[in-house]
Every structure is written in structure tokens, then in C-alpha cells.
Amino acid sequence: MRRRRIQTVFYTIALLWAALASEPLIAQADAVPAISSLSPISVSAGSGGLTLTINGGGFDSSAQVKFNGDVLTPASITATRITAVVPAADVECGGYVGVTITTTSGESTFKLFTIENQAPQIFGLTPTMAFSGGSFFTLTLVGSGFNSQTQVLFGPDKLTPDTASPTQLTVTVPAGEIAFPGTFSISAFNPDPVTGTPNTQTFTVVRPYPIISSISPNTIPAGTPDLSVTITGLNFTNASTVQWNDTSLTTTFVSATSLKAVIPAASLAAMTTANITVSDTDYGVSAPVPFVVTAPIPMASALNPASANSGDPDFTLTINGASFQAGSVVKWGNTALATTFVSS
Fold first, then answer.
1. Residue 66: pLDDT over 50
2. 328 alpha-carbon distance from chain centroid
């Protein structure tokens, strides 16, 4: 009987011990999940999707991963480790992201995951220059490290791109940025966290040079007296001067699109092709436009004889006048006559 009582006591003690030993396991199963570390702890923005390993405890089959608020389905789960695939879209832009684990027992405190922005590098600009006083235009930046968070600095002013890809940005530059001539530094920047140092490119705003669109008249026979011509174009000022080859002509400013100039008779005395340009001390020189002085128009002033009788034999007719030259041909009605050049 005594032995049986001892066995009963030992059996009861064993049951109590087993119950006490099982309580931590139950508590462990009901524990709120906790994250001790992440691997990796950071990536570069735009580097693509990745597999994230979360180490900790209190994980079970109900666990879900929250990455910056987005719920990710774990790829594998143990009590102390979870792996999940983070899609490329979730690491496209830089920033600090909170990672948590949620189970039926609760949600862990977050661990920070860093998405590092690369400092943008600009390899080229299109265009690289503009004329002062022009209208707004689209500037294209080609380079690397761009994303939807990237901003552009045009000189000191911040501009938001219209479109963005990892290698190209387009941005609308307001007319106010190019109101005056100057040289401007162009750079791009991403918000923190950023690794590396951005570079700069140079954009030049220049005064608009004069442009000739037409000259009226643009051709005249040699021997014409002083001639007034009208120059039509763009970007003319009070300082604009019309030039005949390298000689300045007397010029009258009419408007930003019109000038008048006088070509002296001496410049029109002989056949030639001259270059007409518009020069401005502040704005430069226009592209040349040709002005043609053609052969002079022949003029007949007297005939000798001035008449003949019908039925008369062949006779020689002398034509006096001006602007005759070798190769001139006398016509009787519409019939060319055998002609001898004597003098002009």
C-alpha cells in the first residue's frame, strides 16, 4: 500500500511537471511575432525585385509580410525565419520602408529597410542652347539614376519632369527661365537617402541673331541708280545694319521684322552677286542672302536709217543706245537679225 501511494505521488508530480513544461510552448505559440533582423537591409532604387529574409520569432503559418503597407505572401515560413519576394515596383524609388510581420497573434514592431537613391548622372542635354526671349520649350536629359521622384535644377530653380525613365527625363522649361542671356548649370537630384554625387551640364541662353527671310527686290539690272530695298526677317533692332558684302549700307529700322536699306548706284554698276547680311553689335550677324545684279537692259535711242522704201535691197541698220554688249541680238519683229556688236 505504501509503495502504491508513492507511485501515485510520483505520477501526480510527473503530470504537474509535464503541465508546467508545456505552458511555455503554449505561450510561444500565442506570442506576438518579433523581427530581429532583415537580409538584405538595403537596395538601390530601381534595381529590380528581391528576396527578403526576415529573422525573428513567433512566426507561424498565418504570417503575412507587410512591406511599406503592401501585403506580401511569404515564400517560406519557419518559427524563426520568413522569406518573401519584394516586387520591383516596391523598390523603384528611394526611401525608408517599414517591414512588419502579422500573425493571428498580432503584428510585430517594424524594422527599417532602406531603398537608396543613386545620385543622378546627366550625360547629355537636348537642346543645349536657346535664344533669350524665346517661348517655353521641352528639355531632354539623358543619363542614369532617374526615377519618378527625380527633380531638375535649371540654375537655382527646381523643375518637375513631365516624363521619367531610369535613363531619360523630359521637363518643360518656362519662358521666364530664358528671358535673358546667360549660362546655366543643369543638374538632377533625388530625395534622401542618396548615394553618390550628382553631376552638372551647361545650358547656354544667347541673344537671338538676326534672320533674313526675304529681300525685295532681290535682283536688278546693272546700271540701276541708287536702290532702296526692304529686308524682311526676325530679331532686328535699332542697332541693326544691312551690309553689302562687307560694306555697311544706310539702314532704316522699321520694326523687329523689317529694315530698309539703300544700295548705292556704284555697287550696281556691273553684273555681280553680292551677299546681303544684317549685323547687330549685340545679336551677331545673320546668314547671308544673295542679291543678283544682272546684265543691264539694252536701250535703243535712235535708228539709222529710220525708214526704208518697200522693195529696197538689203541694207545695214545702225542702232544707237546704251547697255549693248557682245552677244546682243537685234530682232526685226520676232526674227533675229545677223548682228554685229560695235560698242556698248
1. yes
2. 59
